[in-house]
Amino acid sequence: MPDELLQRAREGDRDAFAALVEPHRAELQLHCYRMLGSLQDAEDALQEALLSAWIGLSGFEGRSSVRTWLYRITTNRCLNVLRSSSRRPQHAVPLPVPAPEPSRSGEVLWLQPYPDNLLDGLPDRLPGPEARYESREAISLAFVTAVQLLPPNQRAVLLLRDVLGYRASETAELLGLTEAAVTSALARARVTMAGNVPAKAPATVDEQELAERFVAAFTAQDVDALVALMTSDAWVRMPPLPFEYQGREAAHRFFTALAAHERQIAAMVPVRANGQPAWGEYIRDPVTGGLHLIGVLVIGLSGDRIDEIVHFETTVAPYFGLPRTLSEPGE
């Protein structure tokens, strides 16, 4: 069937090309997201890559699988985005309160969450023999954030080798590099990742229980209770704002400053992002009494503690089906 679709696509049948590509679309979009850290940029890059694939279909000689050929095109499209100066500008609404001095350890201002409902469409395919990361780890916000700190070539090599499991020779062919260059880039990338991806402790409490304790402390603006739930080296981030804080003391200063000026959260609508608990945050309008969305919050878990709290702006809400307003909590 794939051979028949390929032949029809080469003859100009767009429907056949769409059917040929569709089984790989979800994983290719996730790959673009890992490369770029932004779902919006990933969608754009994938569309441009598939257009290039359609235009260049006559050049596909069948020496590799269609999947590998598509990975070559999408990876190189993402590399072009990373090497250009035309990345999507980041616009952010400033914080309405004075904030403590951030930790400034390498903010990723373009970071966006990845809805779990998009992960549901991934094919049930095991990574290649060279993979070092489990699928769940390789979609976490901590992992994607750390990948963004790698130079473009190292980023591509790490994802192709350690996430997708391509061999060194295959990766070299995909990227137009020598095997020696791939091996060198991978070694440097692994060192950087080891220093930026915290080790996760095995879960020792029920995720739902810990999430409920977090929501209770967060909505009550109980800073002491909130910080007590965090690991000693936990991160608090707010992309695209340049505010990130590491450690309980820094987090305590930040949440204390926030609680003194911001209105209390009236409702937290649960969603999931990057395989992690997440919520739409709503505050109550003092005039209408309705609830207004102010952001999307994602937490990371390690053992019986929270090791990451990331607040995103409302621009990502449509990906999660979160309405801008609610009449009552839970509507």
Describe this structure in words.
It is a single chain. This protein is α+β, with helices and mostly antiparallel strands and 331 residues long. The protein folds into two domains: 166 residues, Butyryl-CoA Dehydrogenase, subunit A, domain 3; 120 residues, Nuclear Transport Factor 2, Chain: A (Roll), CATH 3.10.450.50. Helices cover 45% and strands 15% of the residues. Strands 1, 2, 3, 4, 5, 6 and 7 form a seven-stranded mixed beta sheet that branches. Helix 3 crosses helix 4 and helix 8 crosses helix 9. The longest helix has 23 residues. The termini are far apart. Belongs to the sigma-70 factor family. ECF subfamily. This is RNA polymerase ECF family sigma subunit.
CATH fold name of the largest domain:
Butyryl-CoA Dehydrogenase, subunit A, domain 3
Number of strands: 7
String of helices and strands = HHHHHHHHHHHEEHEEEEE
Q: What is the overall shape?
A: globular
InterPro entries: ECF_Sigma-70_Domain, NTF2-like_dom_sf, RNA_pol_sigma-70_dom, RNA_pol_sigma-G_actinobac, RNA_pol_sigma70_r2, RNA_pol_sigma70_r4_t2, RNA_pol_sigma_r2, RNA_pol_sigma_r3/r4-like
Subunit structure: Interacts transiently with the RNA polymerase catalytic core formed by RpoA, RpoB, RpoC and RpoZ (2 alpha, 1 beta, 1 beta' and 1 omega subunit) to form the RNA polymerase holoenzyme that can initiate transcription.
Protein name: RNA polymerase ECF family sigma subunit
Pfam family, one: Sigma70_r4_2
